[in-house]
Amino acid sequence: LPGTASAGAPSGNLLVHTQQPQNLETPLEYFDRLTTPTSVFFVRSHFGPPALRPKRSLMIEGKSKLELGADDLLRFKTVKVTAVLECAGNSRALHLPRVPGVQWTHGAMGQAEWTGVRLADVLQKVGVPEDAAFIQLQGADLPPGPKVPRFLRGIPLARAMDPSTIIATKMNGELLPHAHGGPMRLVVPGWTGNHWVKWLRSIRTQKDQVTGFYMEKGYRLPRSPIAPGAALDPADTVPVATLATRSVIARPSDGSKIPPGSVEVAGVAFAGASAIERVEVSMDDGGTWTKAALEGTPGPGRWQVFKHRFEISTPGRYRAVARAFDANGGAQPENAAWNPSGYLWDGWHRVGIEVSP
Amino acid sequence: LKVSVFAVFAVVSANVVDAFAAGPDSTVPPVPTSSRAESLSAEEQARAEQMVINNCRACHAERLLAQQRLTEAQWEGVIKKMQGWSAPLEEGGQRLLARYLSRRYAPDAPPPALTLISALDAAQAIARLHDGRFGGGSAREGRVLYQELCQTCHGADGKGDAEKLGVALVEKPVIFRADELAEVVKKGRGRMPAFADLTDKKIGALIAYLRILKD
Question: Tens digit of pLDDT for each residue in A151-165?
Answer without folding.
Answer: 999 999 999 999 999
